[in-house]
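We emphasize that the prediction below concerns an isolated chain of 185 residues; any contacts that depend on oligomerization or on bound cofactors are therefore not represented. The input was used exactly as deposited, without trimming of termini.
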Amino acid sequence: MLAAGEERRRLIEAHLPLSRRVALRYTGRGEAQDDLTQVGALALIRAVDRCDPSRRELPAYLARCVDGEIRNYLRDRSSVVRRPRRLSAAAAPVVPIDDAIAERDATPDDALLDRAAIAAAARRLDDRERWIVLRVYFEDRPQAEVAVELGISQAHVSRLLAGAIRKMRRELGGARLSRNGQRRE
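Result of the prediction step, given as a token string:
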């Protein structure tokens, strides 16, 4: 029987290719492949430390842990609002909300108030609208992928998303953020 440290090392080394495959699925989303691979490897190590290696479904558990950690990593580094595709080619790069707040010399309280306002507006949405907004804007998932998960067309997802955004804007009093991150009416 292997020692606990040796068993841990063996499990990590045996599942590193799985971690790399999961990380490869997220290339092209604005983060370097090496960074995603490293996040996946660290997630794998933490998952191995938490798991029972005798379980049959160990690879599935490890893959889920790695996938979740990479999604969190991407979510934490993405912008709050995505520009429509038709505007992407001509517009300036999206600035993460933390950078936009820093540029306008806002206090941390302003950031908390902005997030609280968005959360309050999102509470006015029904469960399906909230789920769609979360997947498209915060998990950076394509509308077509969300449509498949819901069993509806991409066009229907687009209409639901547009309606949800209209509801949130009404709730926020029609306010929008300008390019420099300041609220405008």
